[in-house]
Design brief:
The structure is a homodimer.
Chain A: H1 21-28, E1 32-36, E2 39-42, H2 44-63, E3 67-68, E4 74-76, H3 77-82, E5 93-96, E6 102-105, H4 110-120, E7 129-138, E8 153-163, H5 166-186, E9 191-197, E10 206-212, E11 218-223, E12 228-231, E13 250-265, H6 267-272, E14 275-277, E15 283-285, E16 287-293, H7 295-305, E17 307-308, E18 311-312, E19 323-327, H8 333-352, E20 357-360, H9 367-377, E21 381-385, H10 387-391, E22 394-399, E23 405-409, H11 413-422
Parallel strand pairs in A: 3-7, 9-12, 19-20, 19-21
Antiparallel strand pairs in A: 1-2, 4-6, 5-6, 7-8, 8-16, 9-10, 10-13, 11-12, 11-13, 13-16, 14-15, 17-18, 21-22, 22-23
Helix pairs in contact in A: 1-7, 2-5, 2-7
Chain lengths: ~425, ~425
Amino acid sequence: MKYSKLFSKTNKTAPADADCINAKYLVQGGFVDQEMAGVYTWLPFGLRVLHKVENIVREEMNVLDAQEIFMPCLQPREYWETTKRWDSVDILFKIKSQTEKDYALGATHEEVVTPLAQKFIQSYKDLPFATYQINTKFRDELRAKSGVLRGREFRMKDMYSFHTNLEDLNEFYARALQSYLKVFSRCGLQVKAVEASGGIFTQNQSHEFQALTSAGEDLIIACEKCEFGQNSEVATLNEGDKCPKCGGVLNKVKGIEVGNIFNLGTKYTDAFDVNFTDENGEQKKVLMGCYGIGTSRLVGAIVETFSDDKGIIWPKSVAPFQIHLVSLGSKDATVVEQVNSTASSLHDELESAGIEVLWDDRSDISAGAKFADVDLIGIPLRLVVSEKTLRENSVEWKERNSAEAKLILSVDVIESIKSFLRS
Amino acid sequence: MKYSKLFSKTNKTAPADADCINAKYLVQGGFVDQEMAGVYTWLPFGLRVLHKVENIVREEMNVLDAQEIFMPCLQPREYWETTKRWDSVDILFKIKSQTEKDYALGATHEEVVTPLAQKFIQSYKDLPFATYQINTKFRDELRAKSGVLRGREFRMKDMYSFHTNLEDLNEFYARALQSYLKVFSRCGLQVKAVEASGGIFTQNQSHEFQALTSAGEDLIIACEKCEFGQNSEVATLNEGDKCPKCGGVLNKVKGIEVGNIFNLGTKYTDAFDVNFTDENGEQKKVLMGCYGIGTSRLVGAIVETFSDDKGIIWPKSVAPFQIHLVSLGSKDATVVEQVNSTASSLHDELESAGIEVLWDDRSDISAGAKFADVDLIGIPLRLVVSEKTLRENSVEWKERNSAEAKLILSVDVIESIKSFLRS
């Protein structure tokens, strides 16, 4: 894609009210635009990242054999009264229609998925199953903050599982936990599965997933070796203790919550009276688990984790583009033509090879301004075509997370890129 | 995918309150579930169709070089007051937050995209551009009706283009019109671009796209040869007249509206005072066009167009799966094992070849009930493995839009399928 065709642009200065790194760099880099406090438009760069994150989530949920659906944001008041949450959930947006009907605006979807599942569950033969959606959520936060980390409108993957017995629920819960670790690992994050309350074998087990970063808001007691962790607010173990899972040493670290999973037991199936007939013809309550990942929040956590004082440093798996190609100007018009023609061929060749390339083809911008944009946007690999590189039959190669720039012979560049992207 | 693993299921009977074909078959076939009037959950089958339709739309918008973004559903009251639509748009859902802020719930996005575009437009060099999103829309309809054709919550692709002059806007408008015809044609529909008001060269040009179907609600005067049409309510031409574009004969036909495009002129850029500096340094108003396709409505229109008394007949391009594989039972346990093993191998082979297959592997369902589900769900090609086909080293082949079933030798089946899918 040519930068000159892009309608959204980077900003010279960071937003004055940015209270954290992601609010600063995502806005300044032209990834998102703040419509109002806690509400953002995802611009072309940002939406590419969000889609990549959501596709990683989708792939891992599909590996669990969870079935994707898409539930409504408008939810009837009666469902929320059935679970006694209409009045008790203070962040619930409420709407009255022209026809005087009251709706909740989806802050979560237990109130939709439970009566939906009820329609398809009769006997034990219909169980277990898991279903998920990737959708927009709405929460009437008193104070939106931290960029895309805590918004009033945000993106979420929410999965719900349904079971005949606790053993089956626990088995799925354990597999979902591993899938979550896989998702975060594919996004480049180091994440601990932190016991949020209770122990591992209680019925109301839950875990929150904490991405370790010095910019984190939460304090965690985490194993240096395995995925074990405890939120310091409820921790039963201390820094220096041995990990109960693997014997590794526990450290105190900072984290950002990027997901959580809950054994819901029969909380919602009691409310909606969701039963199944077991092998002996007896009616029993269905057990449920729920599993959430805030996908837009995850993008924010990645930025908090991977940046320097110049901008974002995207992991390859979620970068908006893989290559940032820069063509530099010259006072000599013939050289400008040669540079542009070389850059254009390379751009087309990369696109043909299925490699995502952003080509900064702007002619009225200085080299310094272009390089500042490269660092701000944070694409993993910068390639420069200039008068100097043409003389050397080369392209300048600089990785975003390295200070070193080197020349690569033009004939070797495609193979070098493929090897870089595989690594 | 194995049918036995699917949590959503077909229903034996149609919903009692279905007022049209799509409301009947989409619910009965397990494509959608009605949460409340005008609000649906998209179940696994339905979401597969919706995603295919939305990907066709996405591909064609990308061909136009339009840039995908994702705008908020929550929109500040002030923007809607700026365009004087806060009080005048009666289907606008309005929300009051805990902090006493008023929001509109996105019924359309001119109020978001115009001030967004303003942030990135300074001079003529920033123009033209087009941007679009695929998102959920909300409309407080007094009466939701016709299944997914007119809902209170629905899916839409909305694109907005920005220009320095009318000639440039008209040129993009004409290209967008052709892209729309391409989208509908890829979805299997015969669609006319109907003049909704004014003539072709007035500033406030608009077209609605009408899918021709006997189940349509609108009456159209349409050319039998080209895409020309007029809505009968504003028609200046009559049945039997010659088409002003190609000379073909005009007929009176029924249609369902599946999209519309508008030359907005400076309506919204006047309201938000969006200007650009032209080549002579003068400030001028930006011109806008907008272009909408209701993607969930489009799924409904496809069902209204392609069905018979047994169920849906999906066009290949948007079918939830390409193959519906059915394995039949037998009183002989050895035969059951052979049938299942053969069907399982075929299922795996098709999936490996990237062909989407739904395998009805249920063991406790009669052949008649399975075949009724095949017709209801409407996948283009049915393949049957049974005691009889095993004896003949064959698979039974029946296309959904044909009454004829035939045997194909097992060794030829993959090649025959590939050839069928290409046709």
